[in-house]
Amino acid sequence: MKARVLVVDDEAEVCELLGKVLARAGYDVVTAATGEAGLAALDQSVDCLVVDKLLPYLGGLEVMAEARRRRPGLPVVLVTAHPEPFSLGDERPDAVLAKPFKNLAAVEEAVKAALEARPPGALSELKERVAAVVAEISPLRRKRE
Q: What pLDDT sits at residue 49?
């Protein structure tokens, strides 16, 4: 089962580049150009959020906070052109990716690190929930009832 990564960046070129790099690395990628569209895409059951810090209207830090409110423990990679230390409050990304990208391998490494930082058992818990839903809606179960 491929991990699904949501990339949120208002620069179309960056969104496309990150999408291609992550798809080539074996991830299923969903992209969004705004923070609002990114939060709407969370309904697509994503495993990792890659979000630009500076987005118009709803910024990357706000997207990260809301995404984690909705999906506690969601791995987040924060993309920023200003990687110097900055205050994030209580929310911390699992990885920070500096723009411009020094190399494309750094993109893959940041997502991999964020996914590996996920709490132990999170993937198995997700698999169990999916199995329960599938079992509930399967035609064999309906026939038995």
A: 96
